Amino acid sequence: MLSRLIPVRETILGAAILALLLLIASRFSGFVAPANLLNVFNDTAPLIILALGQMVVILTRCIDLSVAANLALTGMAVAMLNVAMPGLPIPVIIAVAIGLGAVMGAINGLLVWKLMIPPIVVTLGTMAVFRGIIFLISDGKWVNAHEMSDAFTGFPRAVILGLPVLSWVALLTVAIFGIMMSRTALGRSIFAVGGNPDAAVYTGIDVGRVKFLAFVLSGALAGLTGYLWVARYAVAYVDIAGGFELEVVAACVIGGISIAGGIGSVGGAVLGALFLGVIKNALPVINISPFWQLAISGSAILIAVAFNARSGKTKGRIILKSAEASE
Amino acid sequence: MTDGSTPPRFIPDRLRTRKTRILHSWEILLLAVAIAIFVINSLASPYFLNAWNLSDATFNFTEKAMIAFAMALLIISGEIDLSVAAIIALASTAMGFAAQYGAGTPELVAIGLVVGLLCGVFNAIFVTILGLPSIVVTIGTMSLFRGISYIVLGDEAFRGYPASFAWFGQGYLFWVFTVELALFAVIAVIYGVLLHKTNFGRAIYAIGNNPTAALFSGIRVQRVKFILFLLTGLMSGVAAICLTSRLGSTRPSIAQGMELEVVTMVVLGGVSILGGSGSIPGVVIAAFVMGLVTFGLGLLNVPGIVMSIFIGLLLIGVIALPRLWTMAAAKRGRT
Amino acid sequence: MTEPLTPVVSMDAITKIFPGVKALDAVHLKLYAGQVTALVGENGAGKSTTVKVLTGIYRPDEGTVRIDGTPVTFTDPNAASDNGITAIHQETVLFDELSVAENIFIGHAPRTRFGLIDRHAMYEAAARLLRSIGANFDPRTRLRHLGIANKHLVAIARALSVDARVVIMDEPTAALSHKEIEELYELIENLKSQGKAILFISHKFDEIFRIADRYTVFRDGAFIDEGLIDDIDRDGLVKLMVGRAVDHIFPTREMTATEDVLQVVGYAHPTEFADIGFTLKRGEILGFYGLVGAGRSEFMQSLFGITKPSKGVCKIKGKIRVIRSPADAISNGIVYVPEDRGKQGAVIGLPIFQNITLPSLGRTSRSGFLRMVEEFALAREYAERLDLRAASLDQDVGQLSGGNQQKVVIAKWLATQPQVIILDEPTKGIDIGSKAAVHEFMAELAAQGLSVIMVSSEIPEVIGMSDRVIIMRDGRIVAEVAGDEMQPDVLVRHAAGIGEMSQLEDA
Amino acid sequence: QDDVRIALVVKALGIGFFEAAAKGAEEAAEELGNVEIIYTGPTDTTAEGQIEVINALIAQNVDAIAISANDTDALVPALKKAMNRGITVISWDSGVAAEGRQLHLNPSSNALIGNMIIKLAADHLPDGGDVAVLSATTTSTNQNIWIEEMTKVMGEYPGINVVTTVYGDDLADKSYREATGLMQSYPDLDAIIAPTSVGIVAAAQAVVDAGKVGEVNVTGLGLPSEMAGAIESGASQSFAIWNPIDLGYSATMLAYQLAANDVVAEPGADIPMGRMGTLTLDENTEGAMADPFVYDASNIEEFKSIF
Ligand SMILES: Nc1ncnc2c1ncn2[C@@H]1O[C@H](COP(=O)(O)OP(=O)(O)OP(=O)(O)O)[C@@H](O)[C@H]1O
Ligand SMILES: Nc1ncnc2c1ncn2[C@@H]1O[C@H](COP(=O)(O)OP(=O)(O)OP(=O)(O)O)[C@@H](O)[C@H]1O
Ligand SMILES: [Mg+2]
Ligand SMILES: [Mg+2]
C-alpha cells in the first residue's frame, strides 16, 4: 500500500515547485535565498488562505466565484470602519472581517442550500452584487494609507520569530484546515458529500447543510483575507483583487482538487497556491517580461489539469484474473 | 404484446396546446421583464425613446449576444467556455498583426474567423479528446490566449486598420440599423434553427440531459461537443471582428471580463447552467434585457459597477423568485 | 422457538407513494428479537422502499412505525440509527475516497477529548469489526482500491458498527462469493443469538430456507402474507410471491432458423474479458448467465462500440464489420438495451417521443432538419406496440414508472429496426406484469426473425427464455449449454466455478 | 437659456486625482454660471467601459465631452460619432488621437514631465546611481510618452543609470510586488521612479516593508494626500504632480469656450481658460497647462488635505 503512504500528487507537485526553484536559481541565485523564499511565501499567503476556502467549496461539488468580491467588500468595510473609529482594536477588526465574510458566504450558501440554485450562478450573481456594494458604500473613493491607523496597517507586517504575521495567519489557517479536514466530522462529511452525495444522504449527512457550511467557511476566509490584503497594501478601493477568484480556482486545480468534487487535500491546495506564487514572484526577478506571466500561468493550469486527470484516472475494476495478477 | 383482440391504448401526442405551452414559458416571463424595463426607461429618461439612441444602445449587447448563442448551445450540452473573451483578444491581435503587413479587409476577416476557430479547436481537444472538465480547461486557456496577446503586444497597440474594415463595427445598413444588429439577427436565426429544428440540436439536448444515455443511443457525443467548442470559438472570432472594427485598435486588454457577461446573458435567457434545457429566443430576450438595463441606467449616468448589481440581482432573482413562489405555494397547500 | 409477545419493530399500514407509483400500499411487517424475518417479493415489490422507510431515508405518506409498540417518526437516517436500526442497503452507499475505517464510522466516529476524530480508536474498532465478519484487509485502505465483494463487506461492517437491535440486510449476498456467504450465515447466527431482530431480503430461496425463521411476502407494493418458514414450502412461497404458478410465466416457442447472423471471434479486452467467441443465429434467443461482475455487461458494451476491444473480429451476415462506436453498431443492426436504465437508457428530461426517435432521427428527418409529424408517428407506432402507459407522448420519461421507462427504451431500439438486440437484465426492476409482457415480446421478436442476446442473472428467466445459454466467469466463457442441459445447478456450478453440486443450486 | 452640459469623463471613478479634477470642474462651472457638470466614467480603466459611457452621453445629447482617455485609439470612433452629432469633444490629462477630439489639454508638456521625473531622482543622487522605472498600466498612453521623453534627456544626468522598466498595471498589489522584485533583482538600486499615482504609493510601501528607507528613494508622480506618509517616513524625498484641480478647471473652461462661445480649436489658436491664463495650441492642436509642481517635506502638510 505504498500509494497510501506517499500522496503521489502532492509529491509530484512539490517536486515541480523544487524544480522550478532550481531553474530560477540557475538564472538568479538570490531568489532561493531563505529571506527571499520567506518573502515569496508571505506574498502568496492570501492566495493560500483563499485556496483553502475554495478547496472546501470545490470538494462539495460547488464553486465560489465571489471570493475576490467578498474580500474586496470586507476590506473596504473594515478600512472604512478603521477610518471612522481609529481606536478600534485589531482583534475586533479581525472579528468583524471574518464575520462579514462569513455572512456573505452564508448568503451564497443559503441560496445554494434552500433554493437549490446552481453555485456557479449564485456566486456569479453575488460577485457582481458585492463589487457594486463596495462602490455604493465607498462612493467609489479610495481609502489611503495615511487615513488608516498604524495598528491597522501594521498588524500583517509585524514580525514574530522572523516571519510576518501575514505568513503566520496563513500557517495557522493551514494547520486548522489540516486538522478540520482529517480529524473532524465536518471535514469528513465534506469529502463524503462531494464523493457520493446520494450515499451521504444514507449515512445521515445533510448534503445541503454541508454545502452551506463550506460556503460559510470560504466566505469567512475571504473576509479575513480582505482585512489582511487591505492592511498589507495599505489601500482599499473597488477593484482590489479583481479577477483573483480565477487565480484561486487555478491554485486549487493545480493542487489536484477535482472540480467534480470529493478528491483533494489541504497539502495540494497549499502547493498549488505556492506554485502560482513562485511563478508570479519569479518573473520580475529573472527578467522575463511580465507580459509572459499570463500565458505561463495559463499553460501551468492546462498542464496540471491534464496531468492530474492522467494520474487520477481510477483504474477500472479488473475482472480478468490474469490481468489482475500482472498488475 | 398486443394480442390483436384489444385495440392498443391511445396516447395523445400532446396534453397542452401550443398556446398554453408558450404562455407558461420562461421566455414570456422574461419578455414581460424586458417590456417593463423598456417602459421604466422611457419614463425615467427623456432621451430614451429616440431611434438613434436605441440604435446606439444595441452595441451594449450585440457582440456579447453573438457569442452567447454559441455559448447557449455549449451550456445546454453540459459544457462551458470561459475563454471566449480571451479568444477575442487573440483573434484581434492576430488581425492587428496582419493589418501591420497590409492585409486587406477580406484577409482580416478570414484571419479573425480562423483564429477563433483554432482556439475553439484547442479547447475542444482538451475537453473532448483528453476528457478534461471544460470549466478548468477554459480557465487555463483564458489565461493562455490573452497571455499570448500580451506577449505579442506588450504595452503596444495595433491600429491602422484599413478604412473599409470599420464597416463591421461602425457601419449602418440602412437608417439606424447597424451592421452589427443585422449580424446579431442573422446569427440568432441560424442558431435558433440549429438548436430547435435540426437533429444536431436534438442531440445537444440529449447530451445535456444524459450524456451516457445519449452515447448509448448512438449519438457521437464527443464529436458534437467538439463542434460546439469550435462554433463558440468561431463566434468569438466574429465578435472579435466587430469589436476590433468598432474600436479601430487592438490592445491585449480588449474585451476583458466579457466571458462572465456572456454566461450571465445565457443563464438569464433561461438556459440551465447544469445543461439540458434552454432556448435561443430566451437568450435573444435576455440580450435585450441586459442591453436595456445597462443603457437605461447609463442614461441616468449610473456607474457601470452599480449596473452590475442590477444584473447580479436579476440573475439570482429570476431563478430564485419562481422557486420561492412554488415553495410558498406548497407550504400554503400543506397547512 | 417460543413466540415473543411484542415485535421489536412493526410497520402498520405503511403507504409510500412516488410520482406515478404506489411503492408501498398499506403494508405490514413485524420483526422479532432473536429471529430472522425474510422479506420476499418480485423486483419492484417494495422491499428496498420498506428498508428506506425503516431507516429514515423516506418518510411514509401514511401509517405508523412502532418500536416496542411505541409509535416513532424518523426525521432523518440518524434518528433511525439512534433507535437501534441499522441496514446494509442494496446499493453500495460508500465513499471511494475515504478509508475503509472512515466508511464504517462516518457520522459516528469515536472522538478524542478535544472533539476530534480518534483515528487510533477508529482503526482499532474497524479492524475488530472486519475480523469478526472474516474480512482481512487493512482498515486504512482507501475504499476505491477494493473490489465489489470487499466493498460489500465494508457495508456490512458499517451496519454492525452501530450498537443496533435491528439489523436489515437488503440482498447482502448478491455480490459475495461462496466462502463469504458462508461467513455471513455464521454472522447472522451470531447476531440472532445476541437477540437482535433481523430483516433479510433475498431472491435466493435456498438462503431463505436455510437462515430465516419467518417470512413476509409483498407483491406490487402490497402485503400478501406472513408466517413461519417451517409452515411453508418453496412452491407455496413462490405462489404467494408471483400470484400464480411459475411455470406459466415463460412463453413456449420454437427455434427453426439456421442462418448465422452474428459471429464473434476472439474478442478480448486488457482487463475485462478475453477469448469471447460465439455464433448467433437468426431468430434465436441466446442467454448469457454469470454471477454479478462476471463481465457480461462489459463484453456486450464492447460489442456495441462503447468500449474498444483490444482484439477480436465481429462478422455480421458473414461480413467483417468494425464497430468503433454505438453509431456504428446501430448502422450495422446491433442495438443494446442497457442494464442501468436511469443512467444509460432513458434520457430523463426529454419527452417520450424524443427518447424513442433519438437513434432513428435519420429516418424521421430530412437533410438534418426535424420533422415532428413523422417523429410522433414513429413514436406512436412503437409505443402502442409495447402497450406503453403514459399520459401523452410529450411527457417527460422521468415521470414514467420503471417498467414503462424500460418499454420506452426498448421501443427506442425496436424503432431502429435492428437485426440483433442485446437485452442486459431486461426485466430488472420492472413489475411482474410487464415482466411477463417483456418475455412474451422477446419471443415474438425472435419469431419475427430478430436475434436476441439476453443477459440475465435470474436463472428461471435464463432457462425459460433461452435457446442456448453461455455462461461467463471472470471475464471468460466457461460453458455453453443447450436443451436438457439447461438446468439450474449446471448454470450455477459453471458460474461459480465449483466442481461438485453445491447447496447454491436453484434460485 | 439652457445650461451648457459638460461631461467630465475620467479614466475610472473613485481615483483621488480625478475627484480633485471634478472639484476644479465644479469651480469653473460656478464661475461660468450656466454650466452643468456631469462627472462620470467607468469603474475600471478600460476603453470599452468609456465607450459605453460616451454612448450614454451622446444619447443624452450633452454639449461637450471632456475626457481623460484609457486608450488613445479605441475611443476615436465613439468620439467621432459624438462630434458628428454636434458635441464638442476635448481630451485632457490622457489624450486621444487627433481625429477623435478638437483639442487636447496636456497637464504639462511631456518634455517637462519627462525631465522632471529623472531630475527628481538625480537631485538626491549627486554621485549618480541605479534607478528603475515602475510604470502604470501597460495600455495607458501617458507613462510611455514620459518615459520616452525621460530617455531623451538622460544624457544631461551623467552617472544616472536606468536599469529597467517594470509595469504595475496600476494595481496596488501588482505594483507592490514589482517594486519588491526590483529591490531583489537590483540590490544596489538607489531610486524607483514611478510616474503613476498608484505605483508610487505601492513602491513607497514596498520600500518601507523591505527596510530600505534611506537606501532607495521613491519618486515620480503622486498625489500629496496619498504620499504624505511616504514623505514623512522618508521613503520618498520628493515627488511631483500638476494640480488636478487646475486641470479639471481648465478642461471645463476650454470645453465651454468651444461649445458655447464658438471658439475654433486650430493650430496656433490661443484659448482663454479663466484663472489659468490661455492655452496655446500646437500643430497637433495640443497645449500644455503648466509646469509640474514639486512636493516635499516643506510643503506636503499644506497640500495633503486638498487632493
Ligand atoms: N425514488 C423513487 N422514485 C420513484 N419511484 C421509485 C423510487 N424508488 C422506488 N420506486 C419505485 O417503487 C417500487 C418499489 O421499488 P423497490 O426498490 O422498493 O423494489 P424492491 O422490492 O426492492 O425491488 P428489487 O428486488 O428489484 O430490489 C418500484 O416500482 C420502483 O420503481
Ligand atoms: N469494484 C466495483 N465497485 C463498484 N461497483 C462494482 C464493482 N464491480 C461491479 N460493480 C457493480 O456491480 C454491478 C454488476 O457488475 P457488472 O454489470 O459489471 O457485472 P456483469 O457480469 O458484467 O453483468 P451483470 O450484472 O449484468 O451480471 C454493476 O452495477 C457494477 O457497476
Ligand atoms: Mg430492492
Ligand atoms: Mg451487468
From TrEMBL, chain A:
InterPro entries: ABC_transp_permease (IPR001851)
Main location: membrane
Keywords attached to this entry: Cell membrane, Membrane, Transmembrane, Transmembrane helix
Membrane topology: Multi-pass membrane protein
Highest taxon above the source species: Bacteria
GO MF annotation list: transmembrane transporter activity
Compartments where located: Cell membrane
Membrane spanning stretches: 12-32, 44-60, 120-138, 158-180, 212-236, 248-279, 291-309
Recorded GO CC terms: plasma membrane
PANTHER family: ABC TRANSPORTER PERMEASE PROTEIN YPHD-RELATED-RELATED (PTHR32196), RIBOSE IMPORT PERMEASE PROTEIN RBSC (PTHR32196:SF72)
Name listed for the protein in its UniProt record: ABC transporter permease
Source organism of the structure: Litoreibacter roseus
Automatic annotation (TrEMBL), chain B:
Membrane topology summary: Multi-pass membrane protein
A Pfam family that the UniProt record links to this protein: BPD_transp_2
Compartmental location: Cell membrane
Cellular component GO terms held in the UniProt record: plasma membrane
GO MF: transmembrane transporter activity
Top-level taxon of the source organism: Bacteria
Residues spanning the membrane: 28-49, 61-77, 109-130, 135-153, 173-194, 226-248, 305-325
InterPro entries xref list: ABC_transp_permease
Keyword Glycosyltransferase: no
CDD domains associated with the record: TM_PBP1_transp_AraH_like
Entry keywords, A to Z: Cell inner membrane, Cell membrane, Membrane, Transmembrane, Transmembrane helix, Transport
Function according to Swiss-Prot or TrEMBL: Part of the ABC transporter complex LsrABCD involved in autoinducer 2 (AI-2) import. Probably responsible for the translocation of the substrate across the membrane.
Complex and partners: The complex is composed of two ATP-binding proteins (LsrA), two transmembrane proteins (LsrC and LsrD) and a solute-binding protein (LsrB).
Protein name (Swiss-Prot/TrEMBL): Autoinducer 2 import system permease protein LsrD
Species in which this protein is naturally found: Litoreibacter roseus
UniProtKB/TrEMBL annotation, chain C:
Stored InterPro entries: AAA+_ATPase (IPR003593), ABC_carbohydrate_import_ATPase (IPR050107), ABC_transporter-like_ATP-bd (IPR003439), ABC_transporter-like_CS (IPR017871), P-loop_NTPase (IPR027417)
Domain of life: Bacteria
The keyword Phosphoprotein is assigned to this record: no
Membrane topology: Peripheral membrane protein
Signal peptide: none
Any one annotated GO CC term: plasma membrane
Cell compartment(s), UniProt: Cell membrane
Keywords from the UniProt entry: ATP-binding, Cell membrane, Membrane, Nucleotide-binding, Repeat, Sugar transport, Translocase, Transport
PROSITE patterns recorded: ABC_TRANSPORTER_1, ABC_TRANSPORTER_2
CDD domains: ABC_Carb_Monos_I (cd03216), ABC_Carb_Monos_II (cd03215)
Pfam families given in the database record: ABC_tran
Gene Ontology MF terms in the entry: ATP binding; ATP hydrolysis activity
ABC transporter domain residues: 9-245, 256-499
Protein name: Ribose import ATP-binding protein RbsA 1
Gene designation per UniProt: rbsA1
